Every structure is written in C-alpha cells, then in structure tokens.
Amino acid sequence: MSLDQWLAERLSNTKDAGLYRTLRKMEQAPGRTNIIDGRKQLVFSSNNYLGLAADLRVVEAAKLAIEGFGTGSSGSRLTTGNASWHEKLEGKLASFKQTEAALLFSSGYLANIGVLSSIPQEGDIILSDELNHASLIDGCRLSKADKKIYPHLHMEMLETLLKESMHYNHRFIVTDGVFSMDGTIAPLDKIRQLADTYDAYLVVDDAHGTGVTGETGIGTCERFGVACDVIIGTLSKAVGCEGGFAAGSRTLIDFLRNHARSFIFQTSIPQSSCAAAYTALAIIESDKSRLQQLKKLSNHIRKELVEMDFYIRGEETPIIPVIIGDTHKATQFAEKLQAKGIFAPAIRPPTVAEGEARIRVTVTADHTEEDINYLLHSFYLIGREMCIIQDAKIGSSK
Ligand code: PMP
C-alpha cells in the first residue's frame, strides 16, 4: 500500500466518524464582518476581542518596522535573530503583566511547549485541568514528570491530588486562565491558596485572558489579585498580532532562555510583528474603552440568551458557548445562523465532551448594537424553530 493509499484510508475513517475538517477562506482583514467562502457574514467567532488586528496604528507600526528591518529575523534569538524590537516588546510584556521579565516565543503554542517540556522534571508531578488547551496537553506530554488530570475547576479533587502528591520532588498546577471552549475562568485565588498550602508551583496559560480579563485587562491574575509562578500568553488574540510569551521572575526567564527548546531552536518572529504587538499593548494600556465595551457586550449577550432559556456556559468572558447538546443539531443550528449571515461555528466532540456540542459565540469590542440585536434575534428564531427554547421564556430582544 502506498503512503497515499494508507493516508486516504485513514482520512476515510475520519470522515466516517464525522471528524473531517475543511478550511474556510476569509477574504478581508479581521473585523466584525468578513467575506467567508464568498459570502458576507457577521463574524461571531474571532479571537480579535479588542478589534486590534486591523487597527491602523498597529498596521502602521508593522509597516514602518518592515521598511526598517525587513520581513524576517534570519535566525534564532541565540544566534543572529535577536534585535531591539524583540527586547523592547519583552520589556513591554513584563510591565504589562507586572512581572520582572518576559520571553517571546513564536506562538503561544510554542510557549506552552517550551515551559512544560523544560521546567517539570522526572520525579515531579503535573496536575492539569481536564479542559486545558491542546498546547498545554502537548507540553505535558513532552515532560518526563508524572501527570494527573483533575475534573474541570474541581478544587476538592485538585486538593485530593495535591495531598496524594507530597512524595514528589515538585508539584505543578497547570491551568488555562480563561478556558477557550467554555468561557469559564479558573478560580486562581483558590488555586493559589492550594498551591501555597501544598507547596506547588502555579502555571497559568492566559491566552484568552490577556487584554480581556481583570479590571484593566492585565489578565486572570489581576482578576483574582494573585501572583502566578509562570504566566504564559499569546499575542494572537486580544493583542491582534502573532507570537507567544512567558512572563515571571528574571530567573524563570533566564532559565527558559537556556532550556526551552521551542525558544532555542526557533527563528524569532520578525521585528514587524514585535512592533505591531508593542503598539497594540500600548493601546490596551492607554485606552480602556474597548475593554469596557467588550465587557458590556459580553454581559448583555449572556443575559439575553439566558432569558431566552438557552443554556450558556462560563461567566463574564467574551467566549459565550451556547450548549445545544446533540452534535447534529449543533451543526444544523450553525448552518441556519450562516444562512442568516452569521458566522458562529458549531464545536463538536471530540473538541468538547459527547452530548455537549455547542455554538461558540465570541464577541469583540467592534460589534455594534445592531450586530448584537441581529445575533440575539436570530438565536431566538432558530432556537424556537428547532425547539431548543420554548415559547414561555422569551428574552427582551425579539
Ligand atoms: N492557549 C490557548 C488557551 C489557546 O486558545 C491557544 C490558541 N488557540 C493557544 C494557547 C496557542 O496560542 P497561539 O495561537 O499563539 O499559538
């Protein structure tokens, strides 16, 4: 059997299981609307939470840096790929996250892999929330430490596992700050307390919290007023750019610079990406109106959908999962939304648990009141048509 025949056979199994994935084409810059596969759609699925991915100031900063420094960095940071914009951005990230230092990676995925493959060692244990992002899971897989999974946000179970882990050399609690498919928030105050009680280190991936969560958007640590031992994040969501980072003490960053293989062996991101992210972070720091608007819209959508009797997961965040349950129904719901010009995809097993298929709505600060009303009205109509919500409980936005 040729390689292609073997792969085609496996792909056919993927299709039979309903798990075959295809790509959709966005034809415009990220924004509240886009042309998706040739049709104009209102986009309610983007991670561009603050609407900065096509902000003209951010674009201009990238353009200027390209003119000055070219399109590629030409090497890893430890060889010929370290430049002033990398260091400037790291300084900005450290001050934004209120840590001593920060280290850039090419993506959040690689930051998670770099941290988890280099810090926990054989003889240590990692305790990981069951809904952690795939990149944390892959990082755990690369580590020689033992691993145990605790049920999502289950603090009693986490405590039990910590008690049972006292014979390990070191304990690590690893969690997302904001969970990408559920919009839930890790209770970092309680987790920090457990970490202190049981002498464990706390590693938080705040990919979806950075710029969005907490009073000023610093992230989930700010939301709970706690310090984490390692904060990981991405520049690809609220910051609207690309790249990832780890933030923490100077010693942590020095260690990662020397031991994180996904840092050492990767070409650094171009200076234009750093200049763009630096500018976006400066906007996030100086203008809180986007953050306030985002919080207002997120809370409004949640409240209205709950009033209509939809079952919503999570709290506060711009990630609003509307649980449909049945996979086929969720797909149908997403298709009906698309027919109305709304792009909010169905998330199905195995990405989420069996019986928990959902429409994952994400809102951005760019959405208008009209966009939101149209979204809510469409949910109401489709929900009733598909008998997901009843007549009796109706929200205020029909
Ligand atoms: N962590 C979480 C929770 C994420 O959702 C993502 C992106 N989907 C990442 C890490 C990876 O970040 P990046 O896209 O920068 O690789």
TrEMBL record:
Biological pathway: Cofactor biosynthesis; biotin biosynthesis
UniProt-listed PROSITE patterns: AA_TRANSFER_CLASS_2
InterPro entries the record matches: Aminotrans_II_pyridoxalP_BS, Aminotransferase_I/II_large, AON_synthase_class-II, AONS_Archaea/Proteobacteria, PyrdxlP-dep_Trfase, PyrdxlP-dep_Trfase_major, PyrdxlP-dep_Trfase_small
Domain Aminotransferase class I/classII large span(s) in chain numbering: 40-378
Taxonomic classification: Bacteria, Bacillati, Bacillota, Bacilli, Bacillales
Natural source organism: Alkalihalophilus pseudofirmus (strain ATCC BAA-2126 / JCM 17055 / OF4) (Bacillus pseudofirmus)
Keyword vocabulary terms for this entry: Biotin biosynthesis, Pyridoxal phosphate, Transferase
Classification via NCBIfam families: bioF
Enzyme class: transferase
Name of the gene: bioF
Residue numbers of N6-(pyridoxal phosphate)lysine PTMs: 237
Protein's name according to its UniProt entry: 8-amino-7-ketopelargonate synthase
Reaction(s) catalysed (UniProt annotation): 6-carboxyhexanoyl-[ACP] + L-alanine + H(+) = (8S)-8-amino-7-oxononanoate + holo-[ACP] + CO2
Presence of the UniProt keyword Transferase in the record: yes
Cofactor(s) the protein requires to work: pyridoxal 5'-phosphate
